[in-house]
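All the exercises in this workshop are built on plain-text protein records. The record below serves as our worked example for the rest of this section.
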Amino acid sequence: MKPGIHPAYRPVVFRDRAAGFAFLTRSTATSDKTVEWEDGNAYPVIDVEISSASHPFYTGTQRVLDTAGRVERFERRYGRGRSER
């Protein structure tokens, strides 16, 4: 790598506040906030809105939408498109 042009690559904690889940990894992301990790060291922390601990696909709580029923209900309510009239 060419020196002086790349951001620092260091340990960072990513925290999912909704699920109460955090993990330590290496990243170039920066943050002014820090958190004390299990090893006793303080690391920058980045709060994320969703992670594998709270995403419906990974937790198995995803819903299957009945899109065909929605389209039919819309067509009954509002009729077909204007181009077909």
Summary: The CA atoms of residues 10 and 22 lie 16 Å apart. The mean pLDDT is 82. The helical segments are 56-59, 67-78.
